[in-house]
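Lay summary

Proteins are chains of building blocks that fold into shapes. Our project writes down both the chain and a compact code for its shape. Here are two examples, one after the other.
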Amino acid sequence: MLNREVLIDGLSEGEKLGAEYVELRFQDKYLANFQYRDGEFVNTTGSREGVCVRALVDGSWALASTNKTEREDIIRTVQKAVKLARGSAPSKEKKIILAEVDIVEDKVISPRKIDLREISVDEKIQRISEAAKKAQDFPLVKSLTINYNEIVDKRIVVTNEGTRVEWEDMKPTLMAFAVAIDEGKMANGYVSWSHTCGAEFFDWHPIDDMVEQASNKASKLTKATLPPAGVQSILLDPQLVGVLAHEAIGHTAEADLVVAGSFTQGKIGKKVCDERITLVDVPFKEGSKWMGAGWLPYDDEGVKGKETKIVTNGIMTEYMTNRAFASELGIEPSGNARAYTFADEPIVRMRNTFIEPGDMSLEELSEAIGDGYVLKSLMNGQADSSSEFMFGVVEAFAIKNGEITDEIFQGPVFTGNAFEVLSNIIGIGKDFDINLGSGFCGKEQPAKVDGGGPHIAVKAMLAGGN
């Protein structure tokens, strides 16, 4: 781990050269990926470390980075950042002003019981190999992919204002994907989890159990048909609620997209959906047993994360910001500035985004629906800044006369406008979980985020069905 004093020397150099604001961020990021596919392994492990310098001169930003961490290299990088900022300042029409923040000094380690590094690479490969044999119990399964990856991320952020923060983050992710074929009909089964935790992850989600779940889903779905298309009464599971909260609403409330003209621009204080909906983005959030994968105590500007209530009782109430956009919008910074590697610029990103629980049991939700469908597990999807979305779902089960049945359907497509969907609420469950699975948010840079909520019953469109 780099000595923090070397970074502080860089701050002094930036001030000496006339920068009004200087920020140095050190990152040491370890990535490991183990992929099994039909008997073949591809494994990659490695670390990447370096320092990012951002300097503000006469309202003009500049960024420079280096993968060398000796004092002389860091000083040269500071000099480069200040020179770039000064050079671009005369042509800068819109001057950058940073919102005021609390000066903090802290050191944080993410929650874990057993360090992921205590389990050897060989043991992880062996566990995956043994778990893969579980697919042999399902004769219709013709292909199996198991993907396990882990991130161990160490960061230090120092600023010439006085902030000094350090944190270490640990995130394992596991996915099992099975393909089954029966009489020429192919179906997929998919299960994935990701948390902020240590090796206790494998006790919560044994790899062989996940292989069994994926294989069982794929096998059953070979006999399934598509559900009917059209407006239906739908019960969404917590993962689909989470992806709706993140993709279709959360992005519209990120300050850079708000300024660019997203749906939520100018909506603060206005009703945007059913009054039973409260939607939040927070630096920490626990699910039924685990901490959400979006754990982020401080952002990459050194700002302490705070709860952001995007929607409160159906009213648009807050945006997610970094310091520059907070100043432009006249609001408080929320700690949402994130960069994937040391060479990346921090941009406004989500952390753990979810809809708060209501007061109905699963049985009460099913009864309220009467006849409809329960949708389970995201397969793929997309959304835009107008809040229009289309999500492919792994499976659906029929709800008849208020009871969830075993009648299964494959590949429903859930589509619409998120704010309209959340204005057509039938009921909100009192349960809660958080899990967006194995994916990363892909806004310009990858970022590990999470999302969730309770089961929610809505009136919405299923597309592409029978």
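And here is the second example, written the same way.
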Amino acid sequence: MAEKSELLASVEYGALRAALGVLRLLPPRWALRATDRLGDVAYLLDRRHRDVALANVARVYGGEKTAPEARALVRRVFRHFLKVGVEFALLPDLIARRGLDGVVDIHGREHVDAALARGTGVLVFTAHLGNWEVVAAAGEPLGMRLHVVGRAMDNPKIDAFLLRERSRWVRSIIPKDGGLPKIVRALRDGDCVAMLLDQHAGRQGMVVDFLGHPASAFRAPAELAARFGFALLPGFGIRVDDSPKYRLDFEPALLPDTEAPREAEVTRLTQAIADVIAKHVRRTPDQWNWLHRRWRAERARPAADATAAAPRTETA
């Protein structure tokens, strides 16, 4: 059985490398536009994710969108995530040839500078919105000593390949499972750590309002900020066109009040993170991961009423 697993891992890895090789031979615009047709096929064939996405859209938008409008949005989401896969193959070479400024328009550099100037670690948070790899690519040029948190792939060969690819831009990849000590160490050393914070956090999470509905959110980033004084810096990379070109938006950092009761502050910051992400999802809904079961019936830790105050933010 182990031998079969090793064979399957090798086949999957070989297929991935072959596909990436072909994509890198095509003009970027052609490669990205080809994903539109592939996305339409995926929309038709992948009933499970299509149904999840349609249910999520109905939950959030209700009567704001007709059934045809909801289906059109979900179809664009399928196209988008195939583009993200293609972009992973193209981005390193594109940035090497054009320079970062030729691929990414960065807005809010002053918020990055202000967060770094505090002299504490900075936890950069983003979402499965647009292309989150753009945030990593911009980290070092913006003065961040950046580490990213990620989940290990089931295929060890693909996982090792992705680690090598991502290591072009960041100091290290910290595993999501069991990586908390490394995250704390990096932040206390004054480095930056990037995390994706828009997915379901399960029973250990905290209930927040996300896009108008209760959802379980990760509380660890807010706990670290409240305990150690780390800044929470929002950053989102949105595709502007298929050349490809992106807009990377940084917002003022969310800052902890270290004099406030710890649990109340954790709740306030966790809700503030959800609010920032929700705002950006509403701005560009066709580039967010509606395919994920974000709202579930699992019981998470309720939020405290004492944290309804607006979040403190860094000012330039």
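What can we say about the second shape? The beta strands are 104-107, 122-126, 146-150, 172-175, 192-196, 206-210, 213-217, 231-241, 245-250.
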